[in-house]
Amino acid sequence: MVRRIACFFPIICLGFLVFTIIMGILFTPYDPYEVNTQEELTPPSSEHWFGTDHLGRDVLTRIVFGASYTLLFPAIVLLLSSLLGVVIGLISTIGRKVDLLTTAIMDSFSSIPSFLVAIIFAGLLGPGMVSTLFAILVSWWVHYARIVRNTSMIIRNQPFILSAQLSGTFGVKLIRKHIFPNALPIVRELIFLDMGTIILMISSLSFLGLGAQPPIPDWGGMILDGKSYIQIAPWVALIPSVFITIFVMLFYFMGRRVQ
Amino acid sequence: MWRFTLKRLLNIILTLFFLSIFIFFLVRVTPGTPEMVILLNRGGEIGGEEVVDIKTELGHDTSLYNQYVNWSKRMIRFDFGVSYQSNLPVLDELLSRVSDTLILVILSLAISIILSVIISFYACIYKGTMREKWIGNISIFLSSLPNYLIGLLLVLFFSIHWKVTPVYGDGTWLHYILPVITASLPLCASFVQLFRQIITEVIKNLYFEAARAMGLKKRVLYTKFLFLPCIHSFLTVIASHFGSLWGTIIVIETIYAWPGLGSYIIHAVTARDYPVVIGFTLIMALFLMLIYFLIDLLLRYIDPRQTQKDGQIKW
């Protein structure tokens, strides 16, 4: 029984946190964008649970409102990039020459670490959410494409593919009916495992000043804002990073459970 | 072996070729053409006659194919042009900064390898005890910590509260402590997780059981029958983390205002200093691919069975 509860623990925690975030959005008395010069950098108190930042904005309110930028946005980015990766990975199984070409493209994208690719893209496209999306898309599809390609190669050599071919299934239909369904479980596992990594990557981009721009209450951007005040007001930077850590860890445990 | 070497070298050249095409077009697709950036850095006005001059100066007034051929000819000679910001050759700029970053990378990699090997063997030898469980839990916790949180906490406690180490910059050996710890804590934690899996796989093997049953000395048993079979997989794991370590080092350099390659690149990217970005990308790709290639050669030297497997993979 205990073990069964432990199994659902990350999901329960996530549900609870999402619930509190929605409650916060509904019931907070503060505005995440409103500048209040009278209450700059006030320490945590009963009025401001997590204190205020350098512009007098309530940190808790900003965290609650920033949750969609820090949690929902990575999920969308991850789904898009996995989709792109799966499609390209499946395309490479069509024929030998196509495979050579796609593998060469994959090699050239994965020859540089994906975070560096993301930095270069996000920087050259100019900071902002859209360029972050493109940056992660460009740097992350390779992982999925490679995994899908390698598993499809293994699947291709199995006898049931041969029998499908003998009964007259070729090309796109073969991939759609036989290879794709068998490669899907691995992709599903990977998406859960990668969620934390993508959250970390996007918040790191924001931390470097390449992600969502102020005044959007993105958690990575909040850490960047708070970094300059770390000596006098450590809560401004620490609280968003603690929240990111909690979510990354929950997603990690969830990924392990799915595995 | 020779065939493998030749194949991999050809692969590297092909990859660089594709990469160069991507970068060549990326620069032309992104907002802000090189001419604009140069003009802005020279303090000229946008929309004047000067744009045409700079275009001829850069050779951008010919066809795209000619541009690519000329450009790639220069790239092969490692001539990446001059930085738009400082007007110094890109290669010199990069080389003057690479040593600071390389020291961080090597130090943190070495420390995390040594520590994680010791810790993971300790955990596997004491399997089933509370100590092993705690090592597992702590390593999961540490590996999911974002490196800016570690950095901020370390600065908060060591530099501001206890005043042991300087907050940022480089110079004395004290400056190295915090960045290296920040880089190696998560790295070490993820190494421990992966190494533990590898070691438990090796322990399951019958030959290890047999060696244990023979009553060998513990030292011989653990070094010859446990450590040696693991080295191959350890090296693979380390190689796969080597590239991403450079990414984390960039974040760490910005936290500590470390005057290395990372902060320079971020600055160059945001200022659209195209020659620097291109030069950095190509050199980084070449460097990492050569490193992976060397590690692969080493792996084949250690475990020649891999060479036989090559022939079995068919399309």
UniProtKB/TrEMBL annotation, chain A:
PROSITE patterns: ABC_TM1. Keywords: Cell membrane, Membrane, Transmembrane, Transmembrane helix, Transport. GO terms for biological process: transmembrane transport. Gene3D superfamilies: MetI-like. It comes from the Bacteria. Residues 67-255 form the ABC transmembrane type-1 domain. It is found in: Cell membrane. The keyword Membrane applies. The keyword Calcium does not apply. The chain crosses the membrane at residues 7-27, 71-94, 115-142, 187-212, 232-253. One of its GO terms (cellular component) is plasma membrane. InterPro entries: BP-dependent_transpt_permease (IPR050366), MetI-like (IPR000515), MetI-like_sf (IPR035906). CDD domains: TM_PBP2. It is a multi-pass membrane protein. Belongs to the binding-protein-dependent transport system permease family. This is Peptide/nickel transport system permease protein.
UniProtKB/TrEMBL annotation, chain B:
One of its GO terms (cellular component) is plasma membrane. The chain crosses the membrane at residues 9-27, 102-126, 138-161, 173-195, 225-258, 278-299. The keyword Transport applies. The keyword Oxidoreductase does not apply. Pfam families: BPD_transp_1, BPD_transp_1_N. It is found in: Cell membrane. Keywords: Cell membrane, Membrane, Transmembrane, Transmembrane helix, Transport. It is a multi-pass membrane protein. Residues 98-299 form the ABC transmembrane type-1 domain. It comes from the Bacteria. Its main location: membrane. InterPro entries: BPD_transp_1_N (IPR045621), MetI-like (IPR000515), MetI-like_sf (IPR035906). GO terms for biological process: transmembrane transport. Belongs to the binding-protein-dependent transport system permease family. This is Peptide/nickel transport system permease protein/nickel transport system permease protein.
